[in-house]
Amino acid sequence: MVTSNYTAEYGRTSGAVINSVTKSGTNNFHGSSYFFDRDKIFDARNYFDPATKPPFRRIQFGASAGGPIIKDRTFIFGDYEGIRENQSLSFSDIVPSQNARAGQLASGPIIVDQAVKAGSCPVAPAECRPAGNGDTGVFLTSALKSAQRITSR
């Protein structure tokens, strides 16, 4: 039993950490498996998301098995857990408005070089909400973040 000053392997918890190990097994093979698929039907739209919800997919699965190596003496047990997650995170940025790209600023017209016009289109798309004095807009998008975590003992 560990009640204070325990190392990082026990995680962040209050109170005591109790670990117990038993020397028992069975002379029969046993095992189990599970699969959990998070259903996107229950996803809610974030306030900062575009009109459509960004995709989110999470699958968690695993299996365990154990049995005898030497009858009544030596046993083995192992498990495996995997998580696959694909999540799109909402992102917003301030970009020049269509009028600003054309050279029509709130303070007056300016001349915009053609190279700047050609280079700003992929970086700052036209689909954005107006912001500020009309020279800028807020662009909302979502980017895919993928994660994979595997645990086995």
- What radius of gyration results from the CA coordinates? 28 Å
Number of E-type strands: 7
Write down the domain tally. 1
Taken in chain order, the helices and strands follow as: EEEHEEHEE
General form: elongated
**Chain-averaged pLDDT:** 75
Give the class from helix and strand content and strand pairing.
Answer: mainly beta
**What is the count of DSSP helices, taking H or I runs of 4+ residues?**
2
| Poorly predicted runs | none
Q: How can the largest sheet be summarized?
A: 5 strands, antiparallel
Strand portion: over 45%
Description:
A hairpin with a 4-residue loop joins β6 (129-131) and β7 (136-152). The model has no long low-confidence stretch (mean pLDDT 75). This protein is mainly β and 153 residues long. It has one domain. A five-stranded antiparallel beta sheet has the order 1-2-3-7-6. The chain has helices spanning 98-102, 114-123, and strands spanning 30-37, 56-70, 74-96, 104-105, 108-109, 129-131, 136-152. The protein is elongated and about 90 Å long. 10% of the residues lie in helices and 46% in strands.
Features:
mainly beta, two-stranded antiparallel ribbon, 153 residues, elongated, 10% helix
Secondary-structure blueprint:
Blueprint: E1 30-37, E2 56-70, E3 74-96, H1 98-102, E4 104-105, E5 108-109, H2 114-123, E6 129-131, E7 136-152
Antiparallel strand pairs: 1-2, 2-3, 3-7, 4-5, 6-7
